[in-house]
Amino acid sequence: MELAAAHPALKAFMCGSLSGTCSTLLFQPLDLVKTRLQTLQSNAKPGAPKVGMFRVFIHVIRTENFFSLWKGVSPSFVRCIPGVGIYFSTFYSLKQHFFQNRAPNAGEAVLLGAGARTVAGICMLPFTVIKTRFESGFYNYASVPGALRSMYETEGVRSLFSGLTATLLRDAPFSGIYVMFYSQAKRALPQEVTSAPYAPLVNFSCGVVAGIMASLVTQPADVVKTHIQVSPSHWSTADAVRYIYK
After folding, report:
1. Solcar repeats: which residues (predicted)?
2. CA distance 58 to 69
C-alpha cells in the first residue's frame, strides 16, 4: 500500500518511527552522557569537583572506546521507533477527535501533547528502563532480550515498570510544554516567515526553543527517573528524591 493512500494515523506512525530512528542514531551519545552524569552521585566523594559533559565524553572514549558512546542504541531503537510512532499517531487521533475544525489553544496543546506522551510512555516503559541501564555502565547486559530475561528472573516483573511515576512526571509535562511552545511560537510568526522556503528552518528553530524550555522544566523529574531505573532496589519516587538531595 502506498504511503499516500494510507490512513493519516498510520502515516503519522510511520513518519514518527522514521524520525525516531534518525534522532536515536544522532543523539544517542548525548543520551548516554546525560545518564552517566545523572548517576555520578552514586560514586562521588563529598566535596569532589563536579564533572562536566566533555569530561564524561573523554572518559568513556578512553576507558571503553569511541563506539561505546552508542551503548544502549539497541534498546533505544526498540523504544523510540515504535514509541515515537505511537506518540504521533495518538497525537493525530486526539487532535482529529477533539480539534477537527480549529487549532488548540495553549492550554489545550499542553493536554494534547501530554496525553499522547502518556500513552507512548506507558507502552514503552520496559524498554526505557533497559535503555537507562545500558547507558549507566552499571550493568553488562548482552542484548535487549537478555536484559528483559535477567530483570524478570532476578527482580521480577515490577522492575520492568520501575520509575513509572517519575517517567510520566517527566514525559507528560515535557511533551505538553513542547507542543504548547512549538505551536504558539509558529502562530506568533508572520505568514511570510513560516512559508516556504523558510519553513524547514522555522520549524527547526521553533522545535529547538520548545525543546529547551520543556527540558528546563522537566530536568528534575528526569534525574529522579534515572536513579530509580538504575537502582535494583525498587525505590519509590520519594526515596529517589531523598537520596538525590541528602
Report:
1. 7-97, 104-188, 198-246
2. 10
C-alpha cell at 105: 489553544
Q: Which residues contact 25 (CB under 8 A, 6 or more apart)?
A: 73
pLDDT in tens, 173-188: 998 888 888 888 888 8
State the CB neighbour count (10 A cutoff) for residue 109.
Answer: 22
* H or E segment to which residue 32 belongs: helix 8-39
Q: Which residue is listed with cell 534522532?
A: 23
- Give the three cell numbers for residue 210: 520548545
Q: What whole-number percentage of the chain has pLDDT above 70?
A: 90
List helix spans (H) across 124-163: 125-136, 144-155
Cα 110 to Cα 99: distance, rounded to the nearest angstrom: 13
> What is d(CA 229, CA 131) in angstroms, rounded to the nearest whole number?
9
Helix, coil or strand: residue 103: coil
